[in-house]
Amino acid sequence: MANETKAAARQVAGHLAVKGHVEHAARLQAALDAAEGDLLGAVREACQTILTAIEAIDPVSAIMVEDLRLAVNARLRPSTP
User: Fold this and answer.
1) pLDDT of 37-52, one tens digit each?
2) What whole-number distance in Å separates Cα of residue 12 and Cα of residue 22?
3) Whole-structure pTM value
4) Euclidean distance between CA atoms 7 and 81, whole angstroms
5) Rounded CA separation 81/79 (Å)
6) Are 25 and 14 contacting, i.e. CB atoms less than 8 angstroms apart?
């Protein structure tokens, strides 16, 4: 989801909460958080698959691949609100 779209949707959630529609605001916020997590999860999974392929082709690179796995997991973790 584009940053501008996410920001606009979060703004709508804020307006809903201010207008007293707290439940709807919470649902919208939860949907935004889930969408972000799904995208990051898909990218993380793709990276892990590529790293597994590299390791299969060149077993000597196992230590380097493990370092990359840790970096991918650290950088592609869903943000907490």
Assistant:
1) 677 777 888 888 888 8
2) 12
3) 0.52
4) 13
5) 6
6) yes
pLDDT at 6: 78
**12-16, 28-32, 59-63, 76-80: lowest mean pLDDT where?**
76-80
Alpha-carbon gap, residue 35 to 29, rounded angstroms: 10
Q: Which helix (H) or strand (E) holds 81?
A: none
Q: What are the structure tokens assigned to 10, written together?
A: 């979060």
C-alpha span between 24 and 46 (Å, rounded): 33
Separation CA 27–CA 16 (nearest Å): 11
Query: How far is the C-alpha of 28 from the C-alpha of 13, rounded, in Å?
Result: 6
Two structure tokens written together for 44: 């993380």
**Strands, E, within 12-72: which ranges?**
none
Q: Is residue 56's pLDDT more than 60?
A: yes
